[in-house]
Amino acid sequence: MTAPLPPGPADHVERVLCVLAHPDDVDFGSAGTVATWTAAGTEVTYCIVTDGDAGGFDETPRDRMGPLRREEQRAAAAEVGVSDVHFLGHPDGRLEPTLDLRRDISRVIRQVRPQRVLTSSPERFWERIGASHPDHMTVGESTLRAVYPDARNPFAFPELLADEGLEAWTVPEVWLGASPRPDHAVDVTDVVDRKFAALHRHVTQVGHQPEGQLEQFVTAWMRETAQRFGLGEGRLAEAFHVVHTA
């Protein structure tokens, strides 16, 4: 007989792995949540699948954009207490759910051995089409495939064990950002300054915006989320669909 699923996410975990497509994805959707985790003593690791070399709003040469965005992401991570950042180097804007991508994400899962993985929802969000960048959905789907069955199956990608000594690892919990069916909100009101400090580190992506526009847009978005989840007047929140996978 199958045991019942827990009613909600774990109150605290030791290690979290965030797998996102581009530098800045984690900061727009989840940096406040990450700041609450690191403040509580959770070790958070980022795995960024591309270098974001197809992004930007100026004439920066394409061969410089990727390295710039890596450094921006490292600086943004530091603002919310994250020092371990992996880059997989897959092509920005051309991601597909390949076996190579699944293997690469499975490798990082086995290295980090997280109790929770945060990634993008693989479902298209029709009301917020910008959240459903094809790379985002591809990374979400590939990460879920890596969580189940790949990372926990010692016979999947056997080279990870035979050649690299990476034992199988089961992730009990996945948090999906930008989901059309969120069921859990994190109050980030008290750490929102750290979220904006992280976002402003992505100069190549937000430096062109008029002063205050970024805060205005993101705050309105987080305020609406908090109201939708009944967190009270003046609160700010980030929302996720929590999936139990163990």
Can you put this structure into words, describing what you see?
This protein is 40% helix and 17% strand. The chain is α/β, with parallel strands linked by helices and 246 residues long. It has one domain (15-244): 3-Layer(aba) Sandwich (Rossmann fold), CATH 3.40.50.10320. β2 (43-50), α2 and β3 form a beta-alpha-beta unit.
Task: Give the topology, please.
Layout: E1 15-20, H1 25-39, E2 43-50, H2 62-79, E3 84-90, H3 99-112, E4 116-120, H4 134-150, H5 158-162, E5 173-177, E6 184-187, H6 192-200, H7 203-206, H8 213-228, E7 237-244
Parallel strand pairs: 1-2, 1-4, 2-3, 4-5
Antiparallel strand pairs: 5-7, 6-7
Helix pairs in contact: 1-6, 2-6, 3-4
Strand order of the largest sheet: 3-2-1-4-5-7-6
**What is the alpha-carbon Rg in Å?**
17 Å
Distance between the ends: 15 Å
Category from helices, strands and their pairing: alpha/beta
How many separate domains?
Answer: 1
| Low-confidence runs of at least 5 consecutive residues | none
Q: On the 0-100 scale, what is the average pLDDT?
A: 95
Profile the largest sheet: 7 strands, mixed
CATH superfamily, by name, is LmbE-like
Order of helices and strands: EHEHEHEHHEEHHHE
Taken from the alpha-carbon principal axes, the silhouette is globular
Helical content, roughly?
Answer: 25-40%
Organism: Blastococcus aurantiacus
GO molecular function: hydrolase activity, acting on carbon-nitrogen (but not peptide) bonds, in linear amides
Protein name: N-acetylglucosaminyl deacetylase, LmbE family
InterPro entries: GlcNAc_PI_deacetylase-related, LmbE-like_dom_sf
